[in-house]
Amino acid sequence: MRLVTQRTALLAALQTDHKVVFASLFAIAGLAWLYTVHLSNNMPGVGSMKMGQGMAGPVSESWAANDVVAMFFMWAVMMVAMMVPTAAPMILTFASMNHRNSTNNENSGRTAIFIAGYIVVWSGFALGATLIQWGLHEATLLSPMMATSNAILGGAILVGAGAYQLSPLKLTCLNKCRTPLGFLMNEWREGPKGILSMGLIHGAYCIGCCWMLMALLFVLGVMNLLWIAALSAFVLLEKVIPGGRWLSRASGILLIAWGISLPFMT
């Protein structure tokens, strides 16, 4: 009877933990999405958009330091909005595994550290994306809508993304993201530093899985909300549905076909 009572109490605590963690993830992602929508609707842009030029064609005016900072912040917030929801299965599994060895307050703190590690890695990706966007901007290869203005470059990005979807490295990283329990059992570390490193490692695998999909924003429009939402939903499906690996392969073939045909469609 005592064992049943303890088991019932543990299950109740886990359910409470899941609700708290899920609510926290919803709040983090929700705020990031709200800010992303705000930026999409109100951000004046950089370069020639400040000069009141048209909404098509390449941008030629150089970025100032504040433009670089603004773009980095935009990318960082956008990555949180897109990727934190896709990490929910891993984060909830971490919270469950961690529960038995900690109090409620410790568990919440440790889960926050894990999430922080994940976000730090994607912030690093945001910095890299900002530098790439800056380079494309300086080369006048981006429109004011922050999409490539060169069909050949756009086609190359699509083909590259498609090829990566079919690559062994993509599959390896995707498998790590699709199996939260296996990942955590293999990578488990104790203490705040260990938990932070687990978040960093998971974030690294997640980038390995998704970085070329994020690069598609340079073709589709960096602040195109429809495509941002579609890519986020696609990444989540890759990670959670039974046929996620086949979804990756099918998308790879479609992206390659799209990339090859793009220069002939414009």
Question: What report would you give on this structure?
Answer:
With 266 residues, this protein is mainly α. It contains eleven helices and no strands. The relative contact order is 0.13.
Per DSSP, what share of the residues sits in E-state strands of 2 or more residues?
A: under 5%
Question: What is the helix/strand order?
Answer: HHHHHHHHHHH
Categorize the overall geometry. Answer: globular
Q: What distance lies between the first and last C-alpha atoms, to the nearest angstrom?
A: 72 Å
DSSP helical segment count: 11
Output the radius of gyration.
21 Å
Averaged pLDDT, please? Answer: 84
Q: In which range does the helix fraction lie?
A: over 70%
Task: Indicate the multimeric state.
Answer: single chain
Provide the structure class: mainly alpha
Largest sheet: number of strands, sense, barrel closure? none
DSSP strand tally: 0
Number of domains: 1
- Poorly predicted ranges: 1-14, 46-59
Write the layout of secondary structure elements.
Blueprint: H1 2-42, H2 65-83, H3 88-99, H4 104-138, H5 151-165, H6 168-178, H7 180-187, H8 191-215, H9 217-220, H10 225-240, H11 244-265
Output the keywords.
0% strand, globular, 266 residues, mainly alpha, single chain
Brief summary of the model shown:
It contains 11 helices and no strands. The protein is mainly α.
